[in-house]
Amino acid sequence: MVSFNSSHNPYASQRMVTYGRNGMVATSQPLAAQAGLDILKKGGNAIDAAIATAACLTVVEPTSNGIGSDAFALVWVKGELHGLNASGPAPQSISIEKLKELGLEEMPKFGLTPVTVPGAPAAWAELSKRFGKLPLAEVLAPAVEYAREGFPLSPVLAYYWERAFEGYSKVLKGEEFAPWFETFAPDGKAPKVGEMWRSEGHATTLEAIGETNGESFYRGELAEKIHEFSKKHGGYITKEDLAAFEPEWVKPISVNYKGYDVWEIPPNGQGLIALMALNMLKNDEFHSRDEVDTFHKQIEAMKLAFADGEKYITEEKEMSVTVADMLSDGYAEKRRALIGDEALPPEAGDPSAGGTVYLATADGEGNMVSFIQSNYMGFGSGIVVPGTGIALQNRGHNFSLDPNHDNALKPGKKTYHTIIPGFLTKGSEAVGPFGVMGGFMQPQGHMQVIMNTIDFGLNPQAALDAPRWQWMKGKEVHLEHSVLNHIALGLSAKGHQIQVAHQTGGFGRGQIIWRDPVTGVLAGGTESRTDGSIAVY
User: Fold this and answer.
1) Taking the C-alpha atoms of 57, 60, 64 and 66 in order, what is their torsion angle to the nearest 10 degrees?
2) DSSP secondary structure string, 468-490?
3) pLDDT digit string (tens) for 487-534?
4) Residues with Cβ < 8 Å from 162, sequence gap 6 or more?
5) Where are the domains of the chain?
6) How open is the CA angle 197-57-108, to the nearest 5 degrees?
7) CA–CA distance, 127 with 84 (Å, rounded to integer)
8) How many CA atoms lie within 13 A of 488 on its CB side?
9) Is 356 a catalytic residue?
10) What is the pTM of this model?
11) Of the residues 27, 205, 212, 356, which is catalytic?
């Protein structure tokens, strides 16, 4: 079993591992973590706590997610791991041909065109119906209260809010973007650290979702409002698209890495990339985390996995290769053989021939949840449905307008998705949920925290605090400024194009909860790169 009993942290964390027995919630905002814990104390289970935390995060961290988000979850209940894919498809009325007639050569980032069907409200309702103990309205009540009464902004949140406001002020010029500014910059500016922000529209929307178990959003008054606003401004999403959506229970995929099973949601998510990279390195011995060879092999494996992912990952039924082929030992060995002493440009192989929030919850009954939801690129599309607080995602930006690409845009198709929850087991026992949010950093973060845990024996907090790298493109690699200098020099000597970053926000923000199988004690780590918090009792 993963050892998390040591209080020693070699990376000088300002936080120590947090321990508890009856329940734990780890996420990026203290108010959201506390909301989840309150639900546990009211008799809810880890699933109820996850829903409460997720809904609260749409209020207290709108820079990363919203009611119009997508969501994925891995849920451990009674010795079994369940996967939920609540990512929505492209509208039925959109097509490559229509967009090219408008002169578009790629999917835009903002506006109604990249808006896909939001899945988060359906995820909350489905999780509540299948595994929850409390009524959905009661579980969403803390989020409703924060939206209606307001809350003071925390430091990292305020930084990203201000950055988004400055960026959106330059590029969001149409009438359809006015509700975003009215909602998130009501005084003509972004709220500052410690200032209160509230949204009555957000509160009433969450109440409607809770009272109708999500029906209002997909087949009721909220669906009508989304439809009318989209129609008014030339969007593609309709009430028929919303009414047709149902979240999908899926079988999680895994690889065995040095005696542990690492689990991810299958495509359309990019968790497959993390598994492929780990699969390439599972027979390597790493003697120290802070060695040039360790960083080099990790980076090279991730580059190869990303090359395959970017070529093949989309909705699974649309992929030209199978997940089984991509995770086969034979293909892993073939790709591992390409890793030598020098940095190589990434190229996809042929397997057939051989802005996001994350949260983790656990309760005293043994239930555990790994949950992630996101609007994508911060606040998302820049579209807010007037009077509702519903900020719509822009996931459609990931679609390709090349009709020959696996991830080509099609009506009703789900795109390549960046958000991925992770889970770790050993034998028949749950070790626990983990995740690292942050766009295309996510599989890279998954790989690094898992290797920190299994190869280098770091406790949850140390595994998160350890300095990270991020592959960007080609041979370009960014290192956090806390990476030791000899590693940066050694990687440069191997041909990597190294840039040292002093702003750590791009290196992901993660959470971990591990459970001791004998005592049931929970050990949690939370991200030092954000306003992370663990609520526990």
Assistant:
1) 60
2) -EEEEETTEEEEETTS-HHHHHH
3) 999 999 999 999 998 776 788 889 999 999 999 999 999 988 888 889
4) 190, 192
5) 23-249+357-398
6) 90
7) 8
8) 14
9) yes
10) 0.93
11) 356
